[in-house]
Amino acid sequence: MQQTVKLQPAEAYQPPRFTVYQHRQIDKIEQLDKLPEHLRFQMKVVANVFPFRVNNFVIEELIDWDKVPNDPVFQLTFPQRGMLDDESYDKMAALLSKEHTPEEVFNLATEIRQKLNPHPAGQMEKNVPEYEGERVDGIQHKYKETVLFFPSQGQYCHSYCTFCFRWAQFVGKATRFNNNDAELLHNYLAQHTEVTDLLMTGGDPMVMRTVKLRKYLEALKEPRFDHIRTIRIGTKSLTFWPFRYVTDPDAQELLKLLKELVDAGKHVSIMAHVNHKQELRTEVTREAIKLIRKTGAQIRTQAPLLNNINVDADMWAEMWKEQTQLGMIPYYMFIERDTGAKRYFEIPLHKTWETFREAYKQVSGVSRTVRGPSMSAGPGKVEVSGVTEIGGEKVFVLRFIQARNPDWVQRPFFAKFDENAHWLDDLKPAFGEEKFFWQDEYDAM
Question: What cofactor does its activity depend on (predicted)?
Fold first, then answer.
């Protein structure tokens, strides 16, 4: 196993030159030369359907190449054969095995992608609001108090995750969702005083230069935005490119911006996506965590439970303990969404709950800030609270952590136990009920 070498600060954080590889450069990744040719071909096939992007830090510091292809970070970042169904894989493999044009590959990829539910949970139909009578692309307002903003400059990542539920953001303009109008964002927030939380999301807003991020966030210090109490920034940069906070040319400006927002009375939370404890092993990531915390910003961690990557309950427990020790707050265990390559990563709901429970019972109260397992479904965030037997019927116990209608929150409801259920849509009401209590209202939205 690759060991982290602890160096003195002066030499520890000499930044490497950022080098990124996408699907057309996959043959230039020297570490892949050790893999059998058929595995390399499989990766090329899948990488022509799903977005692929990996940087040199992930390759050199986070992946144990002696354990490939089973290494969790390799599975997290490099395309795998099982991500495509057999029919889709065979079609793309056949095309790539003969003379072909880029247009033919793009057209077939587009055909395959459209079958993969590119925008799940009503994101395009139910979440996009209107401003002055017009639909506002780049903003989602699903829950009353929270607005999501997709800055155009932040709609890619330092590396892409194979499971990503926002994969459609990265595969062409037809499925992309973004906005670069800071004034429109500010006007919308000023008009909606019920909103307390702004979530900057993507992609990854931390790929932006600080000057561009400031354009969106600095104005929130003004009195007209006193109702905006929390600013969240969703990012994978803490583990995929921690130099963003340590040695990047504008790292100090970024930390300064975070501190300014905190000093202005905002609760600033870095929503860090950490899928495996292996991602936390580098000294530069730990330094980045320290620097962010010094600004007064908090770091909350979240990740879905993923087959082939992080199914081990003991690993989750150790990861939550380590995150807590580093000053991070375990926040969510999600259930893999019903989009993209879910067939490769999804786990039955009852096994997901069992894994969560086995991990949760190993940690102390300070790490039990984590919630889940949670489905970010159409009507809201639905937690699988347990599996039990009531009146002789085996059932899932469910509740809304968050919902389109706030009145649904924390109301328990029950579904028939189904060992093959992977998502909310697979469940049927228990006890002879025809519908869940929220169903009619949600269908009418």
Answer: [4Fe-4S] cluster; pyridoxal 5'-phosphate
Mean of pLDDT values over 133-153: 93
Predicted pLDDT at 170: 86
SS (H, E, C) 285-301: HHHHHHHHHHCCCEEEE
Is 326 within 8 Å of 183 (Cβ atoms)? Answer: no
Least Cα distance to 21 among 154, 205, 203, 159 occurs for 159
Cβ proximity of 200 and 233 under 8 Å: yes
How many Cβ atoms are within 10 Å of 296's Cβ, its own excluded? Answer: 14
Q: CA dist 198 to 49, 140, 232, 434, Å?
A: 32, 10, 6, 37
Query: Residue 210 and residue 195: Cα distance in Å, rounded?
Result: 24
User: Which of 148, 157, 138 shows the shortest CA–CA distance to 51?
Assistant: 157
Task: Give the angle 72-34-56 at the CA atoms, nearest 5°.
Answer: 55
Average of per-residue pLDDT across 61-67: 97
DSSP string, 171-206: S-GGG---B--HHHHHHHHHH-TT--EEEE-SS-GG
Residue with structure tokens 């929150």? 409
In the predicted structure, residue 11 carries a pLDDT above the cut 80: no
Is the per-residue pLDDT at 390 higher than 50? Answer: yes
Instruction: Say how far apart CA 348 and CA 199 lie, in whole Å.
Output: 29
Query: How far is 275 from 2, CA to CA, in rounded Å?
Result: 18
* E strands, 274-423, in order: 298-305, 329-335, 371-376, 380-390, 393-403, 413-416
Residue 5 has pLDDT above 60, yes or no: no
Residue 186 confidence (pLDDT) above 70: yes
Q: How far is CA 34 from CA 22, 30, 67, 70, 280, in A?
A: 19, 8, 12, 14, 26
Q: Which amino acid is at 311?
A: V
Consecutive H or E run containing 109: helix 102-113
For residues 246 and 10, the answer to whether their CB atoms sit within 8 Å is no
For residues 60-79, average pLDDT:
97
Round to whole Å and give the CA distance between 343 and 327.
34
- Burial bucket for residue 223 (CB in 10 Å: 0-12, 13-18, 19+): exposed
The arithmetic mean of pLDDT across residues 404-416, rounded, is 97
CA 378 – CA 355 distance, rounded (Å): 24
Please say if the pLDDT value at position 7 is more than 50: no
Instruction: Render 218-278 in DSSP notation, one character per residue.
Output: GGGGSGGGTT--EEEEEESHHHH-THHHHTSTTHHHHHHHHHHHHHTT-EEEEEEE---GG
| Between 310 and 9, the higher pLDDT residue | 310
Tokens of 393: 């019927």
